[in-house]
Specification:
The protein is of the alpha+beta class. It contains five helices and seven strands; from the N terminus they run H-E-E-H-E-E-H-E-H-H-E-E. A hairpin with a 2-residue loop joins strand 1 and strand 2.
Length: about 180
């Protein structure tokens, strides 16, 4: 989009509180991560996000090990789940804050044990909520998606563009090859 950025990992633990509903958790995690980084860079705009996979009302976080990943994939096979991503754009200096949450419905096709084992061997399950990467070979597990594909990847770009436009960090490009550019 033509926006210069720097990745600054947050030091916030992404752990739901006991009994915390999934949507409340993902919103809190995105906000806390952004606030922590903004505390170190108060003059900068900080875009933070958190994504979770919810199946049968339960959060499927990042798998602990291959066995945990296999358990998650078996739980998702042949069923619907929801991917929820909360996004927060803030700047500590002037108190600017814009928050959004996007939910996408995803259905996996039925998966055999052999398919799950083969997918585990790709290494894509590591560090991925729900143990799959829709932007990689994990897209072969998905039967259909209703909603934002980029949300399933981990950052709902349509919503991010809207937030950046509202903050006047980007504008529609009038002269150049890009669609958007610096405002």
């Amino acid at each position: 989009m033509g926006v210069a950025y720097r990745v600054v990992p947050s030091r916030v633990e992404e752990v739901p509180a006991p009994g915390e509903p999934p949507l409340r958790f993902v919103r809190r995690a995105a906000r806390e991560k952004g606030e922590e980084v903004a505390g170190r860079f108060p003059q900068s705009f900080v875009l933070s996000a958190d994504t979770t996979v919810v199946a049968s009302g339960k959060i499927l976080g990042k798998p602990k090990d291959p066995e945990d990943a296999a358990r998650m994939l078996r739980a998702l096979a042949g069923r619907e789940h929801r991917v929820q991503t909360a996004v927060c754009l803030l700047r500590r200096q002037d108190g600017y804050r814009d928050e959004a949450c996007v939910t996408t419905r995803v259905w996996f096709r039925n998966l055999s044990r052999e398919e799950i084992a083969a997918y585990l061997r790709t290494g894509e399950t590591v560090d991925k909520a729900g143990a799959y990467a829709a932007q990689g070979k994990g897209n072969l597990l998905i039967d259909r998606i209703v909603g934002s594909y980029t949300n399933v990847v981990g950052l709902p770009m349509t919503r991010v563009v809207e937030m950046l436009l509202r903050a006047k960090l980007i504008g529609v490009s009038r002269n150049g090859p890009g669609f958007y550019g610096f405002a």
